[in-house]
Amino acid sequence: MRLYAITDRMWLNGKTLMYQVEQALKGGSTCIQLREKNLDDKSFLEESYKIKKLCKKYKVPFIINDNLEIALKCAADGIHIGQNDMEIKKVKKIIEDNMILGVSVETVEQALIAEKEGADYLGVGAVFNTSTKSDANSVSHKTLKDICDNVKIPVVVIGGINKKNMKQLSGIGIDGVALISAIFSVDDIEKECKELLEISIKTVNKEHK
Ligand code: TZP
Ligand code: MG
């Protein structure tokens, strides 16, 4: 969960997603989430198979955002859902313990429910301003800390995180940082991930759990 890279084809800039994800993997990303908001199911599935194969080569978990059908079809390592996607309980009943289940939460209450209903990790954010997700609500560092203090499952933080502000998240007890634009908007993704990984090692502090 330490350096969790989430894809976004708005940053492709003529490159392929396969190329960009491989750069992120070479740079040390510890988890890849394929997040496709506007792709038809056929193309989504095709892309899923390709990225899954790549993640397997680098022995990194491959997570699908939102789409359980695609996650099951391509036998992804996990599925990540938000509060407005499928119900946590319903997803858990289908995947049982055969797949990692990630759930986005913004409050302690949502975090406790997600944990109880079978989430394996939580995504918490947005912790900083972001232009990547227009409808993202902001989560204060106080709420983030309360979530970390009250759940046993890993907490991954998201939203506007970059090399400069990441250190502000140290000492809170997070397990990882999830990033979109800070990874995929840059030209040298591999180099960027190496630098982000270095900082994330200092930021993630399990001692506080
Ligand atoms: N959920 C909350 S904020 C966010 C998502 C998917 C976007 C994160 O993107 P970025 O570019 O790392 O701010
Ligand atoms: Mg969602």
Question: What Rg, in angstroms, do the CA atoms define?
Answer: 16 Å
CA(first)-CA(last) distance: 15 Å
Please tell me the overall pLDDT: 96
Order of helices and strands: EHEHEHEHEHEHEEHH
| Beta-strand share of residues | 15-25%
The small-molecule ligands in this entry are: 4-methyl-5-hydroxyethylthiazole phosphate, magnesium ion
Biggest sheet, open or closed, and with what strands and sense?
A: 8 strands, parallel, barrel
| Order of strands in the sheet with most strands | 1-2-3-4-5-6-7-8
What's the structural blueprint in terms of helices and strands?
Elements: E1 3-6, H1 17-26, E2 31-34, H2 41-57, E3 62-65, H3 68-73, E4 78-81, H4 88-95, E5 100-105, H5 108-116, E6 121-124, H6 141-150, E7 155-158, E8 176-179, H7 181-184, H8 189-203
Parallel strand pairs: 1-2, 1-8, 2-3, 3-4, 4-5, 5-6, 6-7, 7-8
Helix pairs in contact: 1-2, 1-8
The structure holds 4-methyl-5-hydroxyethylthiazole phosphate and magnesium ion (MG).
Q: Would you write up a description of this structure?
A:
38% of the residues lie in helices and 16% in strands. α2 links the parallel β2 and β3. It has an eight-stranded parallel β-barrel, surrounded by six helices. α1 runs parallel beside α2 and α1 (17-26) packs across α8. It has 209 residues and is α/β, with parallel strands linked by helices. The chain binds 4-methyl-5-hydroxyethylthiazole phosphate (TZP) and magnesium ion. The site of magnesium ion has 3 residues, from loops.
